[in-house]
Amino acid sequence: MERRHSRPPLPTLRPDASPDPLRRALLVGFGATYVLSLVPFAWAQAVPDAAMAPFMALSAVLVGRPSLDPAQAKRLYDALAANDPGFPAAAKQLLDTVEQRKIDPMQLQQTLNDENSPLKDLPRQVVTAWFLGIVGSGKNARCVAFETALNAQVVADILKPPTYAYGAYGSWTRNPAEGPDHG
Amino acid sequence: MADILSADYIVVGSGIIGSLVARKLALAGASVIILEAGPRVTRGELVARFRNSPRRSDWMSPYPPADWAPHPIYQPADNGYLIQAGPYPYPAEYIRQVGGTTWHWAAQAWRNLPNDFRIKSLYGVGVDWPIGYEDLEPFYQEAEEIMGVSGAPNTGSPRAKPFPMEPVAEPYAMRRLRERLASDFPVVANTTARNSRPYDGRPACVGNNSCQPICPVDAQYHGGLSADAAEAAGVQLIANANVYKLEHDESGKVTAALYYDPDKSSHRITGKTFVVAANGIESPRLLLLSTSDKFPKGLANNFDMVGRHLMDHPSTSLTFDADEDVWLGRGPQSPSSINTLRDGPFRSEHAPYRLDFTNISRVDGSTKSLIAAGVFGPELEKRLRHSAAREMNVKNVLEVLPNPDHRITLSSEKDAMGIPKPETHYSIEDYTRRGAERSQQDFRRIAELMGGTNLRFSKDGDFANNQHICGTLSMGSDPKISVCDEWGRTHDHENLYLAGTGVLPTSATCNSTENALAVALRAVTHMLAQQGATSAPPPRDADERVPS
Ligand SMILES: Cc1cc2nc3c(=O)[nH]c(=O)nc-3n(C[C@H](O)[C@H](O)[C@H](O)COP(=O)(O)OP(=O)(O)OC[C@H]3O[C@@H](n4cnc5c(N)ncnc54)[C@H](O)[C@@H]3O)c2cc1C
Ligand code: SF4
Fold first, then answer.
1. Which of A134, A166, A173 sits opposite B208 (nearest CB)?
2. The predicted structure's pLDDT at residue A26
3. Half-sphere exposure of residue B67, counting CA atoms within 13 Å on the CB side?
4. Which residues does residue B394 pair with via DSSP β-bridges, in sequence order?
5. CA of B208, closest atom in ligand 2
6. DSSP states of B212-273 as a string?
7. What sign for the dihedral angle of Cα B499, B500, B503, B509?
8. Each residue of B487-517: pLDDT tens digit?
9. Is A51's pLDDT higher than 90?
10. A141: which chain B residues are within 8 Å (Cβ-Cβ)?
């Protein structure tokens, strides 16, 4: 599954392609060049809803993934927005901040903390939604994804999410480095 | 419901112990009713609840309590059911539903060691049991054949017959531990109620790695199966029947159990013999609730022993990163341990312990830690894979000595049914703390042999609880320091028996359920003899339980 380990190819810009309203929305969402330098692949991404474009771009930066499933994105976005009506605007604001100040994702949390930014909870919320499939916290937490959460996906070559059968009896005795046990 | 139900035996609680006691009584020809506080829940519902849970590492999240039969819940917030009087918290976990708490256990099904029965005589600590290993041996076997236990013969508990099944295939991570620790520690397969081949109509383990909180295929035995087996043997199981009082006659014999249904209507069930098997906290609570003019301190409590001697198995642990990829989470959760420190002359000085290795996937836990640490971007995935592949964990399972000040009492607070809540009084004593200290050197050596880095010891003075609630109904020959005799029969009431881990007078170093089950199955022979059961128990036909 080399897509996880190698840098994605640079996007091929296709000036001849017919203008696509969603593509245009995505460009709007992205603002300018810094985020594109982090997630060039996002150019090629479909966005289910133009209003989601900033969320998609921000997500791509925060989770560091070459491609994000649009249907999953819609579910997470809807849940995050339902959880906090200010979420879409905050996502756009955080994206702009990252873009304008060229903040490395590994420095982002520290930066927001140091500045006591009102956006400081946002990166965790977004990444928790993508990686754990959980939106909201405490009593209001709910599960939006399980086996499609990214933390299940990024180890799917070796592990199955709990409650999913690993494989035939005893398949777990093998060294996983020798190759996948399950299909 | 008509309130004229009556039976030879009334069993309170349909957990693994109550259900298997009831089943054995019914197979001998007796009429048996089980009164169970909680509702019926299916395995399918539990699996769905787990997958949809926003707190997957909180094993109680698929088991929300019924309003009419609450149990303790700690996440997302403490539901305040189990009152903590301290000084050290005792956050017990158990489940009130048909089948009880073993719906979400790790299925470790151990026998004690022979010396565990005599620690007072041998080491001058704790108490001796009123029975010895040899008294229990046939009943261990019976328990293992019912549950379908797989294991290896090298864990220190002698046996007359082989295990029903060979050990479950060893996960790769455990193999690497066994190989790399061999110079210093023998790492052996755990004895577990988990199928290494199809057994009793249930499949072999397929490695779902969700043994806690729920095995989706029943490759692991649990109390829901015990309750099914009891009903198949003719037991009448009444769910949603929260027993709040036992009544007695002038002679002190118990005559009836009173229970609330979910609407808080009260019902009364009479019987000849009563068995309280509602677990190590709810059983003493029920005895304490059953006060009368004749027994103002509750039943079986003439010497104020009910609820005392609360014990469990506290654990401290070490998490580290091995120098090779081992990928915990392939295969079952609890495969292997080190058993060499469970017994020895040192027991006069410090607690013995078992060292237990987890094989629970690190993925969810690592994800949470990395997110909490603000690791974002491509680094997140990279570090997650690293932790998932390399993180390992070892914990000790420490013995606790019986201390009368550690106890379950009734709180002044009441639950939703208006019944006083249980309250815990607990602490971790020096004997146990010294054992924990001693195990630090093993932790370090284990990490060293695995090329471990990034060593993370559990916080100093923090002990995790293993939910093996022992001692609160201790059996013994001296009525002044125990609640029941070797048969679980209360010293004060000739037709009132107690069954479950609460009956165990010491905790030893292994998960307690099989010990409690063996004691209870042995007690059934006495219960039957007392009622002069005319029909002798039918021979336990192996074909009945073990598919060919
Ligand atoms: C996470 C976890 C992991 C565990 N892992 C292991 C393990 O690997 N190995 C091991 O040996 N043990 C393990 N245990 C402990 C094990 O679950 C208990 O020892 C076992 O369930 C005890 O069986 P029991 O039948 O006595 O009690 P329970 O299983 O608790 O059943 C008691 C029953 O009584 C019912 N009841 C309670 N009050 C009343 C009332 N007033 N009226 C009517 N009914 C009532 C309850 O609803 C319940 O159904 C684990 C426990 C937990 C929480
Ligand atoms: S590993 Fe899976 S199949 Fe095996 S016992 Fe655990 S949950 Fe059941």
1. A166
2. 52
3. 5
4. B318, B357
5. 2
6. TT--TT--B--HHHHHHHHHHTT-EEE-S-EEEEEEE-TTS-EEEEEEE-TT--EEEEEEEE
7. positive
8. 999 999 999 999 999 999 999 999 999 999 9
9. no
10. 54-55, 76
How many angstroms from the chain centroid is the CA of residue B519? 14
For residue B19, the ligand 1 atom closest to its alpha carbon is: 25
Banded model confidence at residue B426, pLDDT cuts 50, 70, 90: very high
The answer to whether the CB of B311 falls within 8 A of the CB of B400 is yes
Q: Which atom, in ligand 1's list, is nearest to the CA of B511?
A: 11
Active-site amino acid positions of B: 468
Mean per-residue pLDDT for B328-347? Answer: 97
How high does pLDDT run on average in chain A? 82
Q: What digits encode the pLDDT tens for the residues B121-175?
A: 999 999 999 999 999 999 999 999 999 999 999 999 999 999 999 999 999 999 9
With beta carbons under 8 A apart, name residues in chain B contacting A75: none
Q: How confident is the model at residue A39 (pLDDT cuts 50, 70, 90)?
A: low
B-chain residues near A168 (CB < 8 A): 206
Phi-psi domain of B307 (left: phi exceeds 0; alpha: psi -120 through 50; beta: other):
left
Residues 66-95 of A with CB under 8 A from B: none
Q: Are A65 and B375 an interchain contact pair (Cβ–Cβ within 8 Å)?
A: no
Q: Which residue among A61, A109, A159 places its CB closest to the CB of B330?
A: A159
**Closest protein CA for atom 3 of ligand 2:** B205
How many helices (H) and strands (E) would you count in chain B?
12, 16
Residue A66 — pLDDT band, cuts 50, 70, 90? low
Residue in B with minimal Cα distance to A59: B377
Tell me which residue in B51, B52, B331 faces A172 most closely, judged by beta carbons. B331
Determine the average pLDDT of the residues in A15-28: 44
Average pLDDT, chain B: 96
> Which residue has its alpha carbon closest to ligand 1 atom 47?
B96
- The residue that leads in pLDDT, A178 or A129, is A129
Spatial separation of the C-alpha atoms in residues B50 and B61, rounded to whole Å: 7
* Token pair belonging to B79: 């539901």
* A169/B217 touch (CB, cutoff 8 Å), yes or no: no
This prediction's pTM: 0.93
The reply to whether ligand 1 has any atom less than 6 angstroms from the CB of B107 is: yes
Q: How many CA within 13 A on the CB side of residue B407?
A: 16
Given this model, what pLDDT does residue B1 score? 44
* % helix, strand, coil for chain B, step of 5: 25, 20, 50
For residues B375-384, give the mean pLDDT: 97
Nearest CA to ligand 1 atom 19: B513
The reply to whether residue A155 touches residue B388, judged by beta carbons under 8 angstroms, is yes
CA-nearest of B138, B141, B64, B492 to B297 is: B492
Tell which residue, B81, B166, B160, has the closest CA to residue B421.
B81
Q: What's the rounded Cα separation, in Å, for the pair B146 and B225?
A: 10
- Average pLDDT, stretch B171-184? 98
